[in-house]
Amino acid sequence: SLVDAKLQRVHSLPVSQQDRVYRNMTGWKSDIKHERAFDRRYRVPDYQNWRKGILTKEQKDMIAALKKCADSLDWEKALEISKTIPEDAGQDWQPVCRGVLSCLCKALRYHEAKQTFERLPQKDTPAYNFMLLMLARLRYVDELHQMLWEMDNDGVPRSAVTYCHIMSSCVATHSWSEALRTLDTLKTDSALHGGANWDVAYLLPMTACARATQREKVEGLLEEYKASGKGTPDRNHYNALIVACGSDAQAAQKVFGDLRAEGWTPARPDWHALMLCHTDCQEQRHVFAQMRQELPDARFEEAWAILLRTAIRNDDSEGAAWVLQD
């Protein structure tokens, strides 16, 4: 009906505008009796619930179950729950459908996630973001670019999270130049700044540049972030700079000292990054000894693996034997 069509248009508006448009469309004020009459006549959810986004008890229980599925990566249970969603589910079921999609994407179930995405009541920004992050983690670069094209073609607005997921793909593929361009796009779009997590937005291109040993780029991003007023670099940003030092152990040691000077306590990933900057077995063992002294309760499997790979690369049978014995 004409009213149904109008309601669908209202649903597509930002929440901040829905209340005003809804009341103008109906010609009613805040009389709850009239609101309920309108709901019964046109089979829309109770207006107060719909406006505030309140879900039914069944939907709440399903979302709670789906969250547990996502936490445990139980994608099969999520698919079972999805079978109980009505076939003609409308937008009031969108949060539940997104819960299914979120679990499938987190579990990297590409085909199941794609089928669920196509059946969504509405392909909105969060749904696209779930898909983009999964594609980035799977390194499905072509599919990710196709998904972005569909998102733009359907007129679905990109969010700051969307750009972060694009940069996540750049990290996986070492596409540092694309990561920098994406960050520049995010910085120039002031409409996205309110929802941007700048810690992550700077860390991702720094990591992409670090893995491509673009040390000057990482240093530049770190200094830019410090001066931007958008936040304070944390331990992870300095870790990226340590990685960017490559085999320059002296430079890596300086960054490690800067990390301490900024008040951060080095964690296992920082010690591992510092070890990797040393190509000599004895130097690595010296760093490992310091790590062991400062983090006596840490797990050392990855550190042992670094030591063993270096010993094998240097054809150091004595060093390899020391690692195995340790």
Summarize the structure in words:
By secondary structure, the chain is mostly helical. The chain has helices at 2-11, 15-26, 32-42, 47-52, 57-72, 75-82, 94-106, 110-118, 125-138, 141-153, 160-173, 176-188, 198-211, 215-228, 235-244, 249-261, 268-276, 281-294, 301-313, 317-325. The longest helix has 16 residues, at 57-72. 33% of the residues are buried. Mean pLDDT is 84; it is low at 1-7 and 14-52.
What percentage of residues falls in helices of 4 or more residues?
over 70%
Tally of extended strands? 0
Helix/strand order, N-terminal first: HHHHHHHHHHHHHHHHHHHH
Q: What would you report as the Rg, rounded to the nearest angstrom?
A: 26 Å
Secondary-structure-based class equals mainly alpha
User: DSSP strand (E) fraction?
Assistant: under 5%
Describe the largest sheet: none
In round numbers, the mean pLDDT is 84
What count of helical segments does DSSP give? 20
Task: Offer a concise description of the structure.
The protein is mostly helical. The chain has helices spanning 2-11, 15-26, 32-42, 47-52, 57-72, 75-82, 94-106, 110-118, 125-138, 141-153, 160-173, 176-188, 198-211, 215-228, 235-244, 249-261, 268-276, 281-294, 301-313, 317-325.
